[in-house]
Every structure is written in C-alpha cells, then in structure tokens.
Amino acid sequence: MKAALLGPCNYYCGHCALYLQKRCSGCAVESAKAAAKGEQWCDIYDCAKTEGYRRCVDCAQYPCAKYDKSIFSESFIKLIRDRLGSTPKS
C-alpha cells in the first residue's frame, strides 16, 4: 500500500476504479493539479492541508460537514460513474 494514496478522509485511492483504470492520479496529485490552476479538487484534502492534518480524524471538528459530503456522497459517486461511463444496474 502506498501511503501517498491514502487521503485525509481515510479513503485509499489505490482501490478506486478511477485510479485503477488510470483515469485519476489520486487525491494528492489531483488536488495539486487543481490548485495550480486555481481550482479545487477536494475540499476535504484542502482543509486537512490548510489545518496541518494528515488525517481528518486528528481534527477536533471531525466529522464535520465537509466530511459528510465526502467520498460516499452522491456527487462523488456520480463523478466516478461519469468518468467510467457506467450507470447503476436496476
């Protein structure tokens, strides 16, 4: 397991379908690319970095509203499905 692929939300990017299909470089890399363009990839990643935490669980505010919108939110699942070109089976 590569430590660089473990996001502050404790999701391991190395298990993500997008990462495995080389459609994403992982939270840290994608966040750095977005920041270089003045954009935001993940508000959780940016918050942890700004606050100086490696993991959200180290923060006294954990779990916060940002965390509640994280990787299991509808928007994140939609992002993965859109990038993979898949839809849920009925």
Layout of secondary structure:
Blueprint: H1 17-20, H2 27-36, H3 43-51, H4 65-68, H5 74-84
Task: Using brief descriptors, characterize the structure shown.
90 residues; mainly alpha; 5 helices; 0% strand; globular
Textual characterization of the structure:
The chain is mainly alpha-helical and 90 residues long. It has one domain. It contains five helices and no strands. The longest helix is centred in the C-terminal third of the chain and has 11 residues. It starts with 16 loop residues before the first helix and ends in a 6-residue tail after the last helix. The model has no long low-confidence stretch (mean pLDDT 82).
Q: Distance N terminus to C terminus?
A: 34 Å
Low-confidence regions:
none
Main sheet overview: none
What is the helical fraction, as a range of percent? 40-55%
Name the shape in a single word. Answer: globular
The Cα radius of gyration reads 13 Å
Secondary structure: number of strands: 0
Q: What is the average of the pLDDT values?
A: 82
Topology as H/E string? HHHHH
Subunit organisation of the chains: single chain
